[in-house]
Design a protein that fits this description.
This protein is an alpha/beta fold. It contains twelve helices and eleven strands.
């Protein structure tokens, strides 16, 4: 009996010892991530929630140091900084990397593509988009972890813009690249200028309108103190922000750490879409009450814009990766009835 009790006691001691040893050698992951968002913005606060979720769900095994407002390197340089090990992960967006390969346009902002964040996210997760993006990112030693999409952007204008015909000779601020090609195809006159120049250009009449951001953000910029027309919900631009990590760093992480970060990105995507939908709806009600006219383009008008966009996509897709992504989008848009 004494021998049996001794064996039982020894086994328990060994079990406790093994448990303590396992706890002592629990794998840890320390990451440095940069985002272009300021911490006080809605997106910055959502990014902070993501960090808290990851650290809490991992029981502290994952620790993240977040650099906001592109405080380490410029926004456009974040991807390379992660790929080369200056940072571990990039939390900006693929649209900054079109100079490397135009394919990044189609995982950064599929202009003239989808109506809602949910449609775009469904392409990523159920339409083959994630797999296609992974091949592209891996070529540059990066791994896409997930995306978060805040919704359609709105055009702001000093004159009515109820449909495509109103875009003829429409002078508006545009970012460079694909967007200028699309709007030129519709007879507009996009003028590339820095984001900070929009207010003065509207005030002086250099431009008739601007592609700035989503409706709520445009309110914050004060654009509707100057102009009284806007598209809502938007139709032309819906940027995708991403979390992409150094591939070697990602591959070296424990599987359960990778899973936590991936699933937490799906949570971030939902929270982002829902929160911005609420804020944009509130902004729409506020603006309508103040006499700003909002234009919700018809299904036919959206299709007309998409046709012009698809023509520009083909011109912009000059690499095999870009062509493959364009074909993937078109096939999925047809499934959704958003393209012919």
């Amino acid at each position: 009996m004494t021998s049996m009790k001794s064996l039982t006691t020894s086994a328990a001691a060994v079990a406790i010892s093994v448990g303590l040893s396992a706890a002592a050698v629990a794998e840890t992951t320390n990451l440095r991530i940069q985002t272009h968002y300021a911490p006080e913005t809605v997106s910055g606060k959502l990014a902070a929630e993501y960090i808290d979720n990851v650290q809490t769900m991992s029981n502290g095994e994952i620790q993240i140091e977040m650099f906001y407002s592109s405080s380490v390197v410029k926004s456009v340089e974040t991807f390379d900084a992660a790929a080369t090990g200056i940072l571990d992960c990039d939390m900006t967006g693929g649209g900054y990397q079109t100079g490397k390969n135009p394919a990044f346009q189609f995982v950064g902002d599929v202009m003239g593509g989808y109506d809602t964040p949910y449609q775009l996210l469904s392409w990523l997760y159920y339409g083959g988009g994630r797999e296609a993006a992974q091949k592209l990112y891996n070529k540059f030693d990066m791994e896409p972890v997930g995306w978060w999409v805040y919704g359609q952007e709105s055009l702001s204008s000093s004159k009515p813009i109820p449909g495509p015909a109103a875009l003829k000779d429409f002078k508006f601020r545009s970012p460079p690249g694909l967007e200028t090609k699309i709007f030129e195809n519709l007879g507009a006159k996009p003028i590339v200028m820095d984001f900070t120049e929009i207010f003065t250009a509207l005030e002086t009449g250099i431009i008739d309108g601007a592609d700035a951001s989503g409706l709520a953000n445009n309110v914050g910029l004060g654009l509707y103190d100057l102009v009284k027309h806007a598209t809502y919900p938007g139709f032309h631009s819906m940027p995708m922000d991403h979390l992409a990590c150094n591939k070697a760093r990602w591959d070296a992480m424990p599987e359960h750490h990778r899973r936590i970060m991936t699933v937490a990105m799906e949570s971030l995507a939902l929270r982002t879409a829902v929160q911005f939908e609420k804020k944009n709806s509130e902004a729409a009600a506020e603006l309508s009450a103040k006499g700003v006219t909002l234009y919700d383009w018809s299904t036919e008008d959206r299709l007309a814009f998409r046709k012009a966009a698809q023509s520009a996509w083909a011109d912009f897709a000059t690499t095999e990766e870009a062509k493959a992504l364009v074909e993937s989008h078109l096939a999925y848009l047809r499934q959704l009835g958003l393209a012919q």
